[in-house]
Recover the amino acids of this structure.
């Protein structure tokens, strides 16, 4: 029997990693990710998890260690946040380019300076182009589910890409919630053993990580992009299989009360649940409004996204990051994704929730009201923001 | 060679399954200077053979150590290390 327990979202991630029977964990502690590797280290020390826990001196080494382990066919996991993700940045690209299916939880955190350990999406946006499959979680259950799913999809021989599971620092990572933990037998049915087809073996020597001069580099990147786009099929298949076993179904774009909605609000991550309360209230008053949440961030779910916004007049994109000199990075991508659509909603962007600044229901009310106003009259501000003085 | 491959020909992660195929690559075409050995001065000490970073220097049947220009990148370490100054680097275009 599966059981419903109270778990901190970080510990839910650790439980998923334990139930995935991971072989190698290498991580460096950083707020707000610390509770994940801390709990995993405890599990290994207690004998609850038969894995190698490899302590390292930096995040750069943490991910490098995982790549080395994956190269011999080990199931690997790491976790980081904010500055830690920045420090491992070059290895993040190497993981996807060398096709090692590491799973990494990122407890989203703001970037220095000024030093700030609290949540926003700046760290996630800085790695959006790195070629990792990336998903965003809204609650503790999703943190558990998507971590488990990440191994299933990343390690699929038709995929072999690393997977990043984003959960908002503190507002999700440190929140204790009811989480349904499945039976180990169900997990085993969902998640087969990792069979890496190119594991390094002294008896069958081969080269991983050869250099790529100008006469071949471009071809390697095209091959990578084609394979990455094709991973979408297994991503969807993985969610279907997950739903069939665990009875919770996930989608690249999660829709909430979008039917016939004239106005749509777009959010990612944990604040989505706060925004839903506002949508409920407005729907009760008879407003034609709904919410869409990007679950799958990479590869970008163009098809599902265009389908989800069809018929809407106004789409308000809420960003927890500034791309300096551009605006909201999600907003920019969303607008670009809709450029060829006819008709398409008016797309406006509002930025808030930076560096741990909370987003209340009133703040989302402002986002919706101001968003509609901008859609109608335009904006003469450098940047449209919410709850920033 | 690599310039005949398309993106469809590449292995997952650009893995090279054939071990040791770096020997097919003509790294000698990177060279701007090449080493010339003066056999009058050479004492066959093999220091150049030891120091060559590309293992491009090989002993000949007569016991001299000569560069394989298919691989030699022209770094000049052999000329620099030679105690008898028997190796001179000359520009590629000076034949």
């Amino acid at each position: 029997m599966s059981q419903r327990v109270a778990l901190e979202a970080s510990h839910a991630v650790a439980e998923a990693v334990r139930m995935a029977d991971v072989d190698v964990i290498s991580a460096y502690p950083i707020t707000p990710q610390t509770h994940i590797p801390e709990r995993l280290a405890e599990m290994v020390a207690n004998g609850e998890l038969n894995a190698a826990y490899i302590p390292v001196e930096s995040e750069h080494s943490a991910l490098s260690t995982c790549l080395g382990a994956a190269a011999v066919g080990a199931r690997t996991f790491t976790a980081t946040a904010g500055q830690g993700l920045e420090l491992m940045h070059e290895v993040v690209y190497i993981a996807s380019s060398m096709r090692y299916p590491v799973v990494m939880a990122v407890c989203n955190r703001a970037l220095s300076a000024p030093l700030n350990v609290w949540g926003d999406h700046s760290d996630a946006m800085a790695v959006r182009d790195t070629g990792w499959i990336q998903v965003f979680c809204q609650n503790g259950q999703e943190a558990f589910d998507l971590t488990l799913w990440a191994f299933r999809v990343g390690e699929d021989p038709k995929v072999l890409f690393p997977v990043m599971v984003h959960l908002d620092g503190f507002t999700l990572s440190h929140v204790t919630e009811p989480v349904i933990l499945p039976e180990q037998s169900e997990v085993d049915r969902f998640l087969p053993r990792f069979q890496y087809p190119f594991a390094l073996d002294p008896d069958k020597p081969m080269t991983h990580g050869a250099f790529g001069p100008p006469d071949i580099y471009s071809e390697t990147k095209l091959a990578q992009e084609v394979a990455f786009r094709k991973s979408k099929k297994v991503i969807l298949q993985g969610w279907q299989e997950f739903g069939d076993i665990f009875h919770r179904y996930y989608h690249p774009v999660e829709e909430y009360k979008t039917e016939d909605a004239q106005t749509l609000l777009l959010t990612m991550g944990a604040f989505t649940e706060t925004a839903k309360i506002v949508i409920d209230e407005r729907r009760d008053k008879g407003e034609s409004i709904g919410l869409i949440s990007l679950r799958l961030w990479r590869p970008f779910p163009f098809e599902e996204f265009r389908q989800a916004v069809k018929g809407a007049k106004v789409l308000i994109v809420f960003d927890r990051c500034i791309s300096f000199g551009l605006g909201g990075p999600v907003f920019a991508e969303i607008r670009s994704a809709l450029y060829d659509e006819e008709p398409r909603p008016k797309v406006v962007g509002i930025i808030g929730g930076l560096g741990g600044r909370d987003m209340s229901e009133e703040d989302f009310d402002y986002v919706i009201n101001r968003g509609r106003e901008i859609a109608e009259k335009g904006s003469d501000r450098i940047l449209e923001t919410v709850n920033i003085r | 060679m690599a310039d005949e491959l398309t993106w469809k020909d590449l292995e997952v992660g650009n893995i090279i399954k054939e071990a040791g195929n770096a020997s097919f690559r003509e790294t000698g075409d990177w060279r701007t200077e090449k080493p010339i050995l003066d056999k009058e001065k050479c004492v066959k000490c093999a220091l150049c053979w030891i120091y060559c970073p590309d293992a491009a220097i090989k002993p000949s049947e007569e016991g001299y150590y000569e560069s394989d220009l298919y691989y030699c990148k022209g770094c000049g370490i052999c000329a620099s290390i030679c105690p008898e100054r028997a190796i001179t680097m000359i520009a590629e275009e000076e034949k």
Observations:
- Chain B touches chain A through 19 residues (CB under 8 Å).
- The radius of gyration of chain B is 17 Å.
- The first helix of chain B runs from residue 47 to 51.
- The beta strands of chain B are 33-37, 57-59, 65-67, 87-91.
